[in-house]
Specification:
Blueprint: H1 2-17, E1 42-46, H2 59-63, E2 69-75, E3 81-89, H3 98-102, E4 108-110, E5 124-125, H4 127-131, E6 137-138
Parallel strand pairs: 1-6
Antiparallel strand pairs: 1-4, 2-3, 3-5
The protein binds iron/sulfur cluster (2 copies).
């Protein structure tokens, strides 16, 4: 008797949902806009001179729980410390956002880019990758 009741209840729910609006979307022709606090792939924020604000302090690398970031530094003509190479191993990344939180210059952000699948075996994001990509983040 209980099984019969559950069957009827299930059919009622199915029947009810026949008349409600579908929640599925036809990806990839339709895409949902991720929420504002979405943590997608990383990007350097470009300043007014279209350069990254990163001063190679290595705090992002230090706070990364996955040890996914490696940085080498140099100094520019004004003796300002600049990032020479930046390597983010995206396959180690757990998208926790600690690197963004730790950055004292707000130089690193997480974009809304979630389509990270690739056929390339190279999953190291370089400084150049973080300055380009489908979503460019401009100065604050
Ligand atoms: S999001 Fe987290 S795991 Fe990924 S690079 Fe930043 S600190 Fe490391
Ligand atoms: S991204 Fe931010 S925290 Fe990381 S090295 Fe550059 S300035 Fe420092």
């Amino acid at each position: 008797m209980k099984a019969m009741f559950e069957l009827v209840r299930g059919l009622c729910i199915t029947f009810f949902h026949l008349w409600t609006k579908a929640v599925t979307i036809q990806y990839p022709t339709q895409r949902r806009e991720p929420p504002d606090r979405f943590r997608g792939s990383h990007r350097f924020v470009l300043n007014e001179e279209n350069l990254e604000d990163c001063v190679a302090c290595c705090l992002c690398a230090r706070y990364c729980p996955s040890n996914a970031i490696k940085i080498t530094a140099s100094s520019d003509e004004k003796y300002q410390k600049r990032v020479l190479t930046y390597e983010l191993d995206i396959k180690r990344c757990i998208f926790c956002g600690f690197c963004v939180e730790a950055c004292p210059k707000d130089a690193l952000k997480m974009s809304k880019d979630y389509e990270l699948a690739t056929f390339s075996p190279n999953l190291l994001y370089s400084k150049e990758t973080l300055l380009s990509g489908p979503e460019i983040i401009r100065f604050k």
